[in-house]
Design brief:
transmembrane; DedA family protein; 11 helices; DedA_domain; transmembrane helix
Length: about 190
């Protein structure tokens, strides 16, 4: 089942869960469905912001409470974790606001911040502002580009060659990602 189908079936609850678990694709799909009138735009924005905020608060609490647990110690060994901690120490407010917009740092960052001395109140306030901005931004992208997306999808329905092209590009992307992952594991 696709992200769009899940959001269409479960509405704003799927946007909430998608924002907490997956991220931009689910929230943008929520904006697309709001454009189609299947869910409300303000509801999708609120669900996206709350899902992101609560998930990141949970990861922060996990990092704070279990900083010496073997799972967190294992995560600390990752280069992304080290980059996140270095950025938090240099610019805590800026990094807390920006991490959800930085690819590759979204999941590990709240845990990393939780292991630092950043106060809970500061983290919660900046995290809330960032989650609200992120939720509104990505839901709006889906909403505003909904018409263009529908036009492209309409073209794809009628032209099998485009489907082969899209499938080939996706397969190439998956193969490239697998190759990069394999290279990273070897080194």
């Amino acid at each position: 089942m696709t992200i769009e189908a899940l959001v269409a079936r479960w509405g704003v609850a799927a946007v909430f869960a998608g924002a907490a678990l997956e991220g931009e694709a689910a929230v943008t799909a929520g904006g697309l469905l709001a454009h189609q009138g299947l869910i409300s735009l303000p509801g999708a924005m609120l669900a996206a912001a709350l899902g992101s905020f609560l998930a990141d608060q949970g990861w922060f609490a996990f990092g704070r409470r279990f900083r010496d647990h073997r799972w967190v110690v294992k995560i600390r060994a990752r280069p992304a974790f080290q980059r996140a901690v270095a950025l938090v120490e240099r610019r805590p407010i800026g990094f807390i606001f920006a991490f959800r917009f930085l690819w590759g740092l979204r999941t590990v960052s709240p845990i990393a911040i939780g292991t630092t001395q950043v106060p809970l109140r500061l983290y919660a306030a900046v995290n809330f502002a960032s989650a609200a901005t992120w939720g509104v931004l990505f839901t709006s992208i889906g909403y505003l580009f909904g018409e263009a997306f529908e036009e492209v999808m309409g073209r794809l329905r009628h032209d099998a060659r485009l489907w082969w092209l899209v499938g080939g590009l996706l397969a190439a992307g998956v193969l490239f990602g697998a190759w990069r992952w394999y290279q990273g594991r070897r080194s």
